């Protein structure tokens, strides 16, 4: 798994086009203020070690939220951080589990529409920790 995390003033997204046939039709637009954002890429090698990957992802995301003094995060499936890609079903399941575990830790979690290309705008802060890459 690869994660690219940002400390942002805001993250805005709108569904643009559906890219997976088996997901529900959806049109959504949302702007989340003063949030962390995580672009998450699930890889094929993550599939046999799902529980470990989810646990480490949650730990890294919680660490990042503490570092940037946030309790709000946007999870965005982003299949462009590696040439190795898990199945869409696995990626969707992992994101759902990460979201649930973060919510159980009292984090406010937003997600972008899975199975859609989205238009987005992001204002990333300038500090060094405003942009962090993690490989699990």
Automatic annotation (TrEMBL):
Tell me where in this chain the Threonyl-tRNA synthetase editing domain is found: 1-136
Q: Which Gene3D superfamilies match?
A: D-tyrosyl-tRNA(Tyr) deacylase
Query: Where is it found, in Gene Ontology cellular component terms?
Result: cytoplasm
TM region(s), chain numbering? none
Superkingdom, taxonomy of origin: Archaea
Which molecular-function annotation in GO is an example for this chain? zinc ion binding
Output this protein's name: Threonyl-tRNA synthetase editing domain-containing protein
